[in-house]
């Protein structure tokens, strides 16, 4: 995978701030230029939200955060960056000027992406000396959580640029889609604008309020869209006869008077005030930052659910997250830095919204998930990684005993450790503990027995020396540790 080494962000508002967070959390250094007097504070707040969201999103080891530097001039920010992302306000004259400035100082092989929501790349690249490296990289808000980027080239953009841009997105957890023909507003905003135009008419004509309109979306097709989009959803709606029947049944309605699509509502002062007031009432006093946090928690929950969908293979944006996490795990160093004289600290995470139950704390099967992740991390330390499993052998868990000693609440930082209690050529006997990271108090423990298996034969088999030799030094060091309280407990036993 080809990676971005250094990024520059020109414009650090809603979208620039999101790009900055996306790059930094993927371990990439970012230089920023934004003349706004409060740019540092604004970017800092977006970054804080992004970090909270990532802590809940994944237990995979994120790389060390990239270095963030604010520069006084555009030229200084562009410097030696190999991906420059322009996110200044949506005005053709301003974007052309800024892109020409970037073009004049960027490295010859640097990629220059524009966040524009709808301007044509051919128009943007008009005054550039090296227009072949300019493309639209249109993201979705919040850029640090929503993975899609529409990649659109103009008449002078080279195919090498498009290919290079597409290749650099998966390592930062994003999915590029190449839009083959340039068109104003590309694909996503074409669809959103159509919906938005119709929605404004429905408010203007007093058919419903902004709150009712949002309810119609979020309690119905909004839920469907996140996981299957439009066409696959309608295929199912056609019943057993699928899409053809759907088109036959609902196609004629397209010609009925169901839409004002091409008429643009006049956003006069009265309508702006009406929408503004209804939107204020709907927000019920929540600030934009609070709404952003709620949005992020919900998106994290949806992404995690999609990650576990389709028999655990992951689905849509959840499959992308799963692949991204596998890349992060593969990039870890196999545990060389672990202190084997202690129980191994293997997972650091936060209690995600999707993990919390009706009692307001982490629900029981999520404990098993964290303990399972701890075992998986231990297995990677002893060389039992995905490549090992693909060769036909693995460890299976044959017994688990979990004790709940405290509570883990939404957003709480927790970590887990693993202690090897015993091992032989087939068995690995471990004791895991989940701690409250704030005070190091144990919240839960799990004692597990794992068995080395020949997966093809479907039976236990001795682990090879390459694995046993990695278990031995840890197991020996752990014999010197006190036996943890709770080892060997069973349900109903007196304390
Ligand atoms: N807000 C959204 O939902 C989305 C916006 N976009 C696109 O992203 C771009 C930026 O939009 P937002 O972030 O929403 O706007 P914004 O108004 O939040 O941020 C724009 C930033 O650019 C800075 N700026 C102005 N002139 C500059 C210059 N010469 N050099 C460097 N920085 C400069 C401003 O100080 C401001 O911080 C636009 O092209 C927009 O169409 C794309 C996807 C979604
Ligand atoms: C409103 N908008 C056109 C700037 C929206 C986008 O471009 C994408 C998004 O995040 O909705």
Automatic annotation (TrEMBL):
PANTHER family noted in UniProt: 3-HYDROXYACYL-COA DEHYDROGENASE FAMILY PROTEIN, 3-HYDROXYBUTYRYL-COA DEHYDROGENASE
Binding sites annotated in the UniProt record for NAD(+): 11-16
Any one GO cellular component localisation term in the record: cytoplasm
GO biological process: carnitine metabolic process; fatty acid metabolic process
Pathway(s) it belongs to: Amine and polyamine metabolism; carnitine metabolism
Subunit relationships: Homodimer.
Protein role: Catalyzes the NAD(+)-dependent oxidation of L-carnitine to 3-dehydrocarnitine.
Residue ranges of domain 3-hydroxyacyl-CoA dehydrogenase C-terminal in the record: 186-262
Family: Belongs to the 3-hydroxyacyl-CoA dehydrogenase family. L-carnitine dehydrogenase subfamily.
Keywords: Cytoplasm, NAD, Oxidoreductase
Primary localization class, coarse: cytoplasm
Protein name according to UniProt: L-carnitine dehydrogenase
EC number: 1.1.1.108
NCBIfam families: PRK07531.1
Record localization: Cytoplasm
Catalytic activity: carnitine + NAD(+) = 3-dehydrocarnitine + NADH + H(+)
One example GO MF annotation: NAD+ binding
Annotated ranges, domain 3-hydroxyacyl-CoA dehydrogenase NAD binding: 6-182
């Amino acid at each position: 995978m080809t990676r971005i080494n250094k990024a520059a962000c020109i414009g650090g508002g809603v979208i620039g701030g999101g790009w900055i967070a996306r790059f930094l959390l993927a371990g990439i250094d970012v230089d920023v230029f934004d003349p706004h007097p409060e740019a540092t504070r604004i970017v800092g707040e977006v970054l804080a939200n992004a970090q909270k969201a990532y802590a809940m999103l994944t237990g995979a080891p994120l790389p060390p955060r990239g270095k963030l530097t604010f520069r006084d001039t555009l030229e200084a920010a562009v410097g030696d960056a190999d991906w420059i992302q322009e996110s200044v306000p949506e005005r053709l004259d301003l974007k052309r000027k800024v892109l020409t400035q970037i073009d004049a100082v960027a490295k010859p092989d640097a990629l220059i992406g524009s966040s524009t929501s709808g301007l044509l790349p051919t128009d943007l690249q008009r005054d550039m000396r090296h227009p072949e490296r300019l493309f639209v990289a249109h993201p979705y808000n919040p850029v640090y959580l929503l993975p899609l980027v529409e990649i659109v080239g103009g008449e002078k953009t080279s195919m090498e640029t498009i290919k290079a841009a597409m290749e650099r997105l998966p390592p930062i957890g994003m999915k590029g889609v190449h839009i083959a023909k340039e068109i104003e507003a590309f694909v996503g905003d074409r669809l959103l604008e159509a919906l938005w135009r119709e929605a404004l008419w429905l408010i203007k004509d007093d058919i419903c309020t902004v709150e009712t309109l949002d309810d119609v979306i979020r309690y119905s097709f909004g839920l469907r869209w996140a996981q299957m989009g439009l066409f696959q959803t309608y295929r199912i709606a056609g019943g057993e006869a699928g899409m053809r029947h759907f088109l036959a049944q609902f196609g004629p309605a397209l010609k009925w008077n169901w839409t004002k699509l091409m008429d643009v509502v006049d956003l006069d002062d009265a309508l702006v005030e009406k929408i503004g007031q209804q939107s204020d009432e709907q927000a019920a006093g929540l600030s934009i930052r609070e709404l952003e946090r709620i949005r992020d928690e919900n998106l994290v929950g949806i992404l995690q659910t999609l990650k576990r969908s389709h028999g655990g293979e992951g689905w849509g944006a959840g499959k992308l997250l799963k692949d991204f996490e596998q890349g992060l795990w593969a990039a870890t160093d196999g545990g060389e830095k672990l202190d084997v004289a202690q129980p191994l600290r293997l997972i650091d995470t936060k209690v995600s919204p999707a993990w919390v139950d009706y009692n307001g704390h982490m629900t029981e099967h999520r404990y098993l998930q964290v303990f399972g992740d701890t075992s998986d991390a231990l297995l990677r330390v002893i060389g039992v990684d995905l490549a090992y499993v693909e060769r036909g052998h693995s460890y299976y868990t044959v017994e688990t005993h979990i004790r709940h000693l405290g509570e883990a609440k939404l957003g709480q930082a927790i970590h887990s450790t693993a202690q090897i209690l015993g091992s032989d050529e087939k068995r690995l006997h471990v004791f895991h503990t989940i701690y409250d990271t704030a005070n190091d108090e144990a919240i839960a423990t799990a004692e597990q027995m794992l068995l080395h298996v020949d997966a093809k034969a479907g039976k236990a088999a001795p682990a090879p020396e390459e694995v046993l030799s990695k278990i031995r030094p840890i197991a020996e060091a752990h014999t010197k540790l006190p036996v943890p309280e709770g080892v060997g407990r069973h349900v109903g036993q007196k304390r």
